[in-house]
Structures are given as structure tokens and as C-alpha cells.
């Protein structure tokens, strides 16, 4: 009997250890009372800083609704994009929510939720090039200088598909766009939702928006490898908000209404 009881207790202890090991980001956030999300707030209209210093945007509102559904507070941790994956892997926050494209390369390092939106790379070019540049293929020569934000799929695409052009990346989108506005670069490669805003907000009438996306880019939330419980919860959350009207309300606020532009610097 004692031997059986010992074996039973050992089994219970083993199960408890497994349960503890399987506790993921969502469970940790619920216990802590705070969901910590790593984010580079420079990607209009997904995450950006308004003139009062507040981080706002489409993805921010999705995350606020997520935290509310969990019954916790949302804490946004500003992180440079090129260091955001290492920061997650060293426990600086629970998950990445920063307009991140689900790529196969990144998926080797992270688990991803289902996509919450699909975008694609587009071009902002100097207006003077309107007759010469009709697509990204026309830029693929050393005659042109192109730019994007470092660490993004814009940079990856520039180097992969437009590799013959001269490339220079910047730490933020605004600097890269201004390089084209000021005539120092010929084209800026970036996600369509950002470019559709930037052409008017920062273009100064000097840019042309080639709005046909030439890549397929699903954006998703990133978590540590093996955190399947958290992925399951987030995917169920995304299904819920897509069907109860929450997603449409948030989406239309940022993509169909331009009132938020008045709140930007």
C-alpha cells in the first residue's frame, strides 16, 4: 500500500511538473494581471505614437480587446524592430504584436497565431519616375537607389526581388520615406496600409503610390516556440472578434475613417 501511495504521489508530482512546464504566455499574463506585448510603434496605422506620446493604432486596439477578454491590463513594451525577436526570447515581454509578417524564416524561431490581416509590399516612388517605373521589376537595376526599414519584410523583399538596385535601410519608416521625398532615394518599399497613409501625410506632393501589392504577407502575433496553449487561446479570440462585430468596428476605425490622423504630429 505504501509503495502504491508513493507511486501515486510521484505520478501527481510529475503531472504537476508537466502542467507547470506547459504554462505559457497567456497563463502567465493572467496570473500576473498584465499582458506584456513587444511593439515598435512606428507602423501606421497599426501602432504609432500620437502627439500626446500615447501608442495608438489598429493592432493596439486589437490587443486592448484581447487583454480585456483575458481580464488583464495591457502593457506595451517599445522595442526596436530589428531586436524584437531576441527580446521576446529573453522574456522582455509575453508576445510580439508589431505588424509582424508570418514568414517561414521567422516561423523557425517563433510560433505564430493565425493571421489577423493580410497585406503586401507596395512602392512609394519619386513622381519624376512615373513614366519609367511601373512596378518593382523596373527598379531592379543599379541605376536606382531604394530604401525601407531595417529588419522588416520590406528590406527582405528589396534585397531578394530588387537586388540589383542600391539599397540603404533606416531604423524607422519616416526617415526612409523622407529619403525619397528629398530625392536621395528613388523608391520606398513597404506594406500597403502604411504607404497609403504616408503618401499623403509625409509625401509633400512629391511621391507616387504604386498601390498594387507584389507580395503576400499575413500579419500575426508571435510567441515562443512550443506555446501551443497560448496560440490556441489567441486563435479562438480572433475567431470570436471576427464574428461578433468587434474586428470590423476596430478595422473600420483605422482603415475607413481618417479622423485619427488629426491626433498625429
Strand order of the largest sheet: 11-10-12-9-13
Percent helix: 40-55%
CATH homologous superfamily heading of the largest domain = Periplasmic binding protein-like II
Q: What's the main sheet like?
A: 5 strands, mixed
Structural domain count = 2
Q: Overall pLDDT, averaged?
A: 91
The stretches of 5 or more residues where confidence is low (pLDDT under 50) are: 7-21
Strand content: 15-25%
CATH class of the largest domain: Alpha Beta
SS-based class: alpha/beta
Rounded to an integer in angstroms, the radius of gyration calculated over CA atoms is: 22 Å
- The strand count comes to 15
Any idea what the CATH architecture of the largest domain is?
3-Layer(aba) Sandwich
Number of helices: 10
Our measurement of the CA-to-CA distance between the termini, rounded to an integer number of angstroms, reads: 74 Å
How do the helices and strands follow one another from N- to C-terminus?
Answer: HHEEEEHEHEHEEEEHEHEHEEEHH
Envelope shape: globular
What are the key terms here?
265 residues; alpha/beta; D-Maltodextrin-Binding Protein, domain 2; 2 domains; five-stranded mixed β-sheet; three-stranded parallel β-sheet; 10 helices; 15 strands; 22% strand; Solute-binding_3/MltF_N; Iontro_rcpt_C; SBP_3_CS; Transporter substrate-binding domain-containing protein; ligand-gated monoatomic ion channel activity
Question: Layout of helices and strands, plus pairs?
Answer:
Blueprint: H1 2-22, H2 25-32, E1 34-39, E2 42-43, E3 47-49, E4 55-56, H3 58-70, E5 73-78, H4 84-89, E6 95-96, H5 104-107, E7 110-112, E8 117-119, E9 121-126, E10 145-149, H6 153-161, E11 166-170, H7 173-181, E12 187-191, H8 192-201, E13 207-210, E14 217-219, E15 222-224, H9 228-243, H10 246-255
Parallel strand pairs: 1-5, 1-6, 10-11, 10-12
Antiparallel strand pairs: 2-3, 3-4, 7-15, 8-14, 9-12, 9-13
Pfam family, one: SBP_bac_3
Organism: Pseudomonas laurentiana
Subcellular location: Cell envelope
